[in-house]
């Protein structure tokens, strides 16, 4: 009844019917394409790994070396205390560049890098003949320790301070020529009550291991220090 029949036999739809047909959806609109889900095996395919991804590159020199197996010791979890397991006796390991690399790791803030770097640095300096091996590395070790002592993280600073005292105990007066480069950061931290006592004890250790010549160096940077 909505179709008008003309004398010529042509059928004309009413205007309302035409507009309705234009706005009505198509009955056979295609379904949206379903994105295929990746297979579990795709994760093992190197082609699916983004070489520029956030986790594709280690965040530091120490992390990269550790990932490649360049640190010959690993963390062993204990029920009470963690320890390191060396792949070979530490006295047979070349200090160059391992001692410098472990010092670089003192600035790490993630586990297990924090423990491996701190404990590895200490244990390597405990081997027989450590002094002869460490003294030639002082020009490279001092800038690395200086960076740890200047770090904003309190735990990093604490590890750097411990490492400095450990190094001083091994190399003795040989550290005096480099000591002035490390004392500026200690002087700044002396205003912090958390570290005042620890830094004072560390300075006394530096004097003990460095001898009388170290006192003049310490006082040049920290005039308030009392021998």
From TrEMBL:
Location of the region described as Disordered in the Swiss-Prot/TrEMBL record: 1-46
InterPro entries per the UniProt record, alphabetical: ARM-like, ARM-type_fold, Parkin_co-regulated_protein
Compositionally biased residues, Pro residues: 27-39
Composition-biased stretches (Polar residues): 1-10
Protein name: PACRG-like
């Amino acid at each position: 009844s909505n179709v008008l029949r003309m004398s010529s036999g042509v059928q004309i739809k009413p205007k309302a019917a035409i507009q309705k047909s234009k706005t009505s959806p198509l009955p056979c609109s295609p379904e949206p394409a379903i994105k295929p889900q990746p297979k579990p095996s795709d994760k093992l395919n190197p082609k699916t790994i983004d070489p520029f991804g956030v986790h594709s590159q280690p965040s530091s020199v120490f992390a990269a070396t550790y990932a490649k197996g360049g640190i010959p010791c690993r963390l062993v979890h204990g029920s009470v205390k963690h320890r390191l397991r060396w792949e070979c006796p530490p006295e047979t390991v070349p200090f160059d560049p391992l001692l410098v690399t472990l010092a670089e790791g003192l600035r790490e803030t993630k586990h297990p890098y924090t423990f491996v770097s701190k404990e590895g640095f200490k244990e390597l300096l405990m081997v027989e003949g450590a002094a002869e091996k460490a003294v030639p590395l002082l020009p490279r070790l001092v800038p690395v320790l200086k960076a740890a002592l200047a770090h904003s993280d309190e735990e990093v600073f604490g590890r750097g301070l411990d490492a400095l005292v450990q190094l001083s105990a091994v190399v003795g007066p040989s550290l005096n020529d480099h000591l002035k480069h490390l004392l500026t950061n200690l002087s700044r931290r002396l205003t912090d009550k958390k570290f005042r006592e620890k830094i004072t004890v560390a300075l006394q250790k530096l004097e003990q291991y460095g001898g009388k010549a170290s006192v003049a160096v310490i006082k040049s940077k920290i005039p308030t220090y009392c021998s």
